[in-house]
Amino acid sequence: MKVDIQSIHFTADYRLLDFVTKKVEKVKTFYDGIKSADVYLRVEKDAERENKTVEIKLNLNGNPIFAKEQSNTFEAATDLVMDKVVAQVKKHKEKMVDKV
């Protein structure tokens, strides 16, 4: 699976990119029909502490899956958004099985 990561309003270091890539690639264990993933790491211009946003778009056969989370670190936001993505992938897989 191809994982494309874009960091917006900052330059991400290799450790963060590696962490996010490994997390996103684990979704492949739940469903084989994932073609690629687009990940957007963004620093919001807020006075809030939770100004790190992670958005993930999975390109599947059919409709894409999208999730977005915000936290005080990119690692925490990635963990939160991955929970949402995994739930959506499992739901999508169940729908595909029901159609067959």
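Second entry:
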Amino acid sequence: MGKLMRALGLMSGTSLDGIDVALIVTDGESHLERGPFQPFPYNAEMRTLLSQAIADAKDLADRHARPGALPHAERALTQQHAAAVSHFLHTHGIARETIDVIGFHGQTVLHRAPGPREVTLMNGTVVNAMGLGLTVQLGLGGELANATQVPVVFDMRAADVEAGGQGAPLVPAYHRALVASLPQRPVAIVNIGGVANVTFVGRTDDMLAFDMGPGNALIDDAVHAATGAAYDDGGALAAKGRVQPDILTAYMSHSYFAQVPPKSLDRNAFDPSLVAALRLEDALATLTAFTAEAIARSRAYMPMEPQLWIVCGGGRKNKTLMRMIAE
């Protein structure tokens, strides 16, 4: 066992729902003690600001550029994370000086995975080109360190890409430690956030991890555009709809599903206009089925059938999605 550290993790995912704060004690390998956890939801104004930042980031070529709403969003995001840390420590009676490190994920506003991707030429021809990868997360690590007086690790996805990785998903090492004491092998841990990803842990603790396809993002965006609500609560609206097989087939024909892992996705990788003409319930049923089908399709890349599936993330609360995954 290596040195144990008390680490405070801060996550703001592609669902744009808020900041999750969690304390763990770990050696970074196999030792894991879970401490308190607390969510800090964003208000509607903050979600709108982050959505605008994502829109303003779509054409970025320089990960350090901050056009449009990005600088305002980055500063507001950092301030809210600092406030969340302070509130968390006070609520749970944790002395600031007992925290060894803060892991600050920041907010992903753009993720172009390394590897082949479709490029549209000026004449309209679509070709496959080798993309170098560009991943952009908002968050001022230095300012958060100054505000909290705790060392901060940040820009982790960019560091992973520079080291030859995909920049996503980031959770496999944690997942492996989490299931270390379970008798079942292989195990698949599915995280359904804005994007769905999986960590496959084999019989000898060998790992495979990749983004499986859409998670909640398409569903959430469709609900918000139609009703102003942040998500389909419990999958109740999707449960009233009918899946449109032709549209589901069109979604599943996307070139991403033919790529071999490791691979990763941006939250906006799939075209929401395919369901734009449908009534809301049918659109949500089809998008929910798309997420479930993508998760099921990912089994083809696993070396063995998992003995145990563990589903986490916000998507686990969508009963319609969970039923479709089970089917």
